[in-house]
């Protein structure tokens, strides 16, 4: 029989009912307040009701969804899960085995997509060779190493080059969830699988296999939630926001960033700068000029406090060049509407081009292309043609649909100056390269 959760009930009855002053908060009222808080924070509609609250109080549910827990803390003015009697269910060796791949994937709403072809269901039911019966430190370290190596390849050559190889590694990683794992390593296993899933997802995003990317980002987020890893959670939500913005849905991008900022005090300054840069890009797409500039200022302030040694391994890419590049893209969108922002956009984009090492070839190509487009729009078209030709050569070295689309955009900006010989030659080269691609 389940043990009643007296702490949760006590927290509820301490709150006064808004409908009956002097009386404790009713179960129905608490459910409505939690639903309202989640909607205000995320735009997500939930259906928590008095019956669900009753299950919590009777101890039938001891570990609600992470977002639900955050909402209960906000409404009941608590901070720690133990204050509400929330705790992870203990796992015996037997039920640790039961955290198998199919159950895990069914628990993750919407996580059932293809990596290259097929589906995650197929992925999880076709075990690769040599999956150990017990997962230990060695396997977890190998997953992390694979994620880092594939991430480096992605930054240098683009997401289209080794997606199938990443798919194989992710298949192996998901199947590891079927093996026994010591409880002390369990969270690390989920974080490592999530890290690899995020790497695979970003490659899919860069290659425009968007549905795969969306669901693999969801897998990364689910792993982060399962592990209680706020850092991986922020990274997954940041990348999901970037994908939404890129696909023309900046409102969704803002929502995802706002969700990532729940309990932002647990994140490092570098992570907060990353999230604020994504928010600025969404606001700029919406044409909200003053808000964009204000958020960029906040992002700069956070980045000025960055201490890389305190960041998780997947944040190593977010250095000064990355920061000025990400915020420079936001200012670029303002500058194409209002040329007074062009000098600041150019300063930031140029800082990204000159600041990145050769490892980040894709980032160099994308920022250099944006800089050339900015100059075509607001500056000297002949100088823009020189920068654009360099960007075209850089983009030719990476397999990135995003970089290719930015090159096409440069060709569109150049059209108004096509009577200038250098610009005409650039447009011809762009058409040749993009047509063959």
Automatic annotation (TrEMBL):
This is Transcriptional regulator. It comes from Frankia casuarinae (strain DSM 45818 / CECT 9043 / HFP020203 / CcI3). The lineage of its organism: Bacteria, Bacillati, Actinomycetota, Actinomycetes, Frankiales.
């Amino acid at each position: 029989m389940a043990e009643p959760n007296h702490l949760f009930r006590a927290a509820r009855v301490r709150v006064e009912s808004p409908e009956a002053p002097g009386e404790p908060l009713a179960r129905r009222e608490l459910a409505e307040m939690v639903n309202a808080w989640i909607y205000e924070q995320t735009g997500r509609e939930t259906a928590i009701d008095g019956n669900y609250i009753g299950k919590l109080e009777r101890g039938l549910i001891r570990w609600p969804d992470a977002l639900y827990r955050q909402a209960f803390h906000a409404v009941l003015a608590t901070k720690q899960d133990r204050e509400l009697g929330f705790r992870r269910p203990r796992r015996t060796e037997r039920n640790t085995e039961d955290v198998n791949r199919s159950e895990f994937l069914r628990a993750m709403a919407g996580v059932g997509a293809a990596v290259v072809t097929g589906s995650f269901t197929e992925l999880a039911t076709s075990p690769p060779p040599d999956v150990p019966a017990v997962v230990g430190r060695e396997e977890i370290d190998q997953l992390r190493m694979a994620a880092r190596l594939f991430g480096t390849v992605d930054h240098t050559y683009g997401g289209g080059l080794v997606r199938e190889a990443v798919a194989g590694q992710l298949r192996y990683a998901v199947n590891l969830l079927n093996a026994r794992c010591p409880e002390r390593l369990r969270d690390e296993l989920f974080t490592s699988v999530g890290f690899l899933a995020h790497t695979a997802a970003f490659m899919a995003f860069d290659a425009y296999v968007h549905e795969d990317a969306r669901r693999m980002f969801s897998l990364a987020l689910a792993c982060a939630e399962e592990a209680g890893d706020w850092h991986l959670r922020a990274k997954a939500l940041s990348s999901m926001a970037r994908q939404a913005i890129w696909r023309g849905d900046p409102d969704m991008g803002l929502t995802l960033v706002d969700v990532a900022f729940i309990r932002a005090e647990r994140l490092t300054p570098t992570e907060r700068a990353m999230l604020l840069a994504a928010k600025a890009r969404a606001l700029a797409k919406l044409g909200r000029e003053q808000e964009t500039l204000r958020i960029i200022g906040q992002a700069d302030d956070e980045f000025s406090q960055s201490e890389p040694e305190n960041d998780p391994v997947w944040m190593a890419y977010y250095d000064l060049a990355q920061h000025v590049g990400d915020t420079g893209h936001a200012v670029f969108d303002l500058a194409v509407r209002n040329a007074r922002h062009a000098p600041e956009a150019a300063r930031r984009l140029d800082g990204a081009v000159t600041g990145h090492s050769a490892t980040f070839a894709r980032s160099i190509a994308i920022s250099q292309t944006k800089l050339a487009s900015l100059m075509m729009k607001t500056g000297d078209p002949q100088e823009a043609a020189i920068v654009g030709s360099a960007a075209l050569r850089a983009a030719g070295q990476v397999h990135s649909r995003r970089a290719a689309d930015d090159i096409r955009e440069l060709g569109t900006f150049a059209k108004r100056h096509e009577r200038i010989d250098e610009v005409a030659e650039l447009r011809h080269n762009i058409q040749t390269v993009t047509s063959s691609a």
